[in-house]
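Folded chain entry
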Amino acid sequence: MKKLGLLPKLILGIIVGIILGKLKVLVIVQLLATFNGLFGNFLGFVIPLIIIGFVAPGIGDLGGNAGKLLGAAVLVAYGSTVVSGSFAYIVDSTLFPSFLKAGSLAIDAGNPEHALVGPLMKVAMPPIMDVMSALLIAFVIGLGIAASKGHTIKDVMNEFQGIVEGIIKVVIIPLLPFHIAGIFANMTYAGQVETILSVFAKVFAIIIVMHIVILLFQFTVGGVLNGANPIALLRNMVPAYMTAVGTQSSAATIPVTLAQTKKNGVNDGIAEFTIPLFATIHLSGSTITLTSCALAVMMLHDMPYTFGSFFGFILMLGVTMVAAPGVPGGAVMAALGLLESMLHFDQNLLSLMIALYLAQDSFGTACNVTGDGALALIVNKIAGFKLEKK
């Protein structure tokens, strides 16, 4: 196992998880669910530390360009999210009417998470702060280091970054394949997600194709700006994509996304600054999924819709989802208020949206984190760095 690369281990974890789920042995799934619960709680505890440990020193290392690059990174991420949502609406409004008929919805709107096997025990590991607080602290400390040009706090943050990197390399990365095996075993055992996927198979197929198209667009832009082969750059991000498919969490995938972004030649400081930031504020895949699922539900219920109403929803979605927790289903939870206030979804439709989103959350998250690598390439060019050979 030690000789296998990360990608083969992740694929092996998925295969083993599906096999164990098909065996329908409850105690095995419960044991895996218990491990997932403990590992997931630990990830939740570590995520704010990862953000502070990487973003603050990353901003500090940028020196006088810190404020400028932070603003550029935020604009690039928000622009990518809005473009993705608008693209999704145009494609969906063109294709969906050909196979979605008003009033034809016949699906259990229950949350598929209710069918999952629970752990044998739970150990609470509350994080010291939420993701947004960690980001704000990282911004303040990083910009402070850049402005003061002092060394004391910078040295402390660099040492703290080393501690966080040690946790990632020694604990998180080695255990990720087991975590992914547990997730797929539980989903396979439950079976309810498969039912939802079969009903909305065409919708989800279109969503995944749009994910691929937007990734090709993002990496084409990043590749052209840096004079590199977009396909080769995208291929290097496959381990991050596979990790996100298993964990369903952009934040939990940060260590892998960061490593693969550096492999693409992005400056270490830029990568360590942008990847944890984009994991929180860049949600192109999730926006495509939410826009598509919302439009499909509205069509099936014969609800009125216009590009104007959806564009406002997409603009707000790009802001609201920044507050989404870095856990499975976090984006749709953050979007519930917008779905209710802007698209007039009632509680039944909100429950249906949660079910639909969770059924394919893995692929939306995978699109998010893979796109993070492309956006890091763009910021790398804005910062004036050339791709490094590694």
